[in-house]
Amino acid sequence: MKLDLIHFGQSPGVNLNMQEKVEIALQLEKLGVDRMEAGFPAASPGDLAGVNAVARAIKNASVIGLSRARENDIEAVREALQGAQDPCIHLFLATSPIHRQHKLRMEKHQVLETAEAAIKYAKKYFSKIEFSLEDAGRTELDFIAEVTSMAIRAGASVVNIPDTVGYMTPYDYGNIFKMLKETVPGIEKIQLSAHCHDDLGMATANALAAVLNGADQIEGTINGIGERAGNTSIEEVVMALETRQDFYQAKTSLVLNEIYRTSRLVSKLTGMVVPGNKAIVGANAFAHESGIHQDGMLKEKTTYEIMSPETIGVKESKLVMGKHSGRHAFREKLIDLGYELGDEQVNAAFAKFKDLAD
Q1: Coil, strand, or helix at residue 54?
Q2: Is 39 within 8 Å of 65 (Cβ atoms)?
Q3: For residue 283, which of 237, 322, 318, 327 has the smallest C-alpha distance?
Q4: How far apart are CA 198 and CA 58, in angstroms?
Q5: 343 vs 300, 331, 346, 347, 350, CA distance in Å?
Q6: Who's near 180: CB < 8 A, 6+ residues apart?
Q7: What is the rounded (10 degree) CA torsion for 150, 41, 135, 193?
Q8: Which DSSP helix (H) or strand (E) runs through 162?
Q9: What are the pLDDT digits (tens) for 255-280?
Q10: Range with the lowest mean pLDDT among 67-81, 231-245, 261-275, 338-352?
């Protein structure tokens, strides 16, 4: 199964200018992202201009503009995506009881009517339309099915099922996709998309559960940036699929050795530091200090690494010298530094090294 990957992301306190957006977009194109959501054109004139700059720069991926289910927003996306090789609009409207009652002040039938009108209006300008059921994770299953069915009839090409507040468990989230695939007429005509947030630390697990239950597209960000605790980390999903092909039976088009370069660019331009222990792209993801681990690594790398750093564009693993390091790694480090010592000299030096490290 081939999955599409979409990159998007807005984080509190992060404001990319037009040139920075284009720089990231061009790197995402090198990375092989299928679709990139470049911004929310109705939010500000600057966002509209930024989306347009990305739309004109990108040739090998679909560029998407975000839009509420409002005609003015749709017109803004239409303007922003002028010049795009493969434009797509991403409409969204909340569907959960808590959003219907407190935010929209709408009944179910009003949500359906508003969403349908927006999709049909967008259809005049766009051949590719994604529709998102905002807060689908807390929406009644039968209403998710009803809205999805409506979106298909109205002309959506992608229906997105967001866990907007990071509330779902992998079992519950996967079950939504399973239910939709089994019960909604015409579901085979569209792509079903997963969009997860990491409020409970389960965004990657939930996205992978969606894959197992029929998702065609995964939405996420580089380094897991995004609102609040962030979105699904694209690099985590991709490397899980790559490393466990036997289990997931799915793949993407990503150019894996561009992952690390992309991560560092996004970190630099957003000012959001990647934690050292971040999966896949953290500074310590391929670093080993434990003596037991270092000994295993020196004998056979697969003892403690399930993927090679070169795969994502990192030059090599690191054996970090510290108080937990063992004699084997210490001797290898001495050789790297150009010192050829006998056993007694190594033992004496190692004892002094341990004192220093402590």
Answers
A1: helix
A2: yes
A3: 318
A4: 29
A5: 23, 9, 5, 6, 10
A6: 144, 145, 148, 161, 187, 192, 214
A7: 60
A8: strand 158-163
A9: 999 999 999 999 999 999 999 999 99
A10: 338-352
Please give the angle made by the CA atoms of 15, 17 and 22, to the nearest 5 degrees. 120
Q: What is the percentage of the chain residues whose pLDDT exceeds 90?
A: 75
Helix, coil or strand: residue 10: coil
Per the listing, tokens 């004892």 go with 351
- Residue 7 has a pLDDT of 64
pTM: 0.90
Please name the amino acid found at residue 349. A
Contacts of 185 (CB under 8 A, 6+ apart): 149, 152
Residues contacting 204, CB < 8 A, separation 6+: 196, 198, 232, 233, 236, 237, 240, 279
**SS3 assignment for 79-113:** HHCCCCCCEEEEEEEECCHHHHHHHHCCCHHHHHH
| Torsion of the alpha carbons at 196, 199, 205 and 210, rounded to the nearest 10 | -30
From CA 51, how far away is CA 99, in angstroms rounded? 28
Distance CA 162, CA 198 (A): 12
Q: The tokens of 143 are what?
A: 């209403």
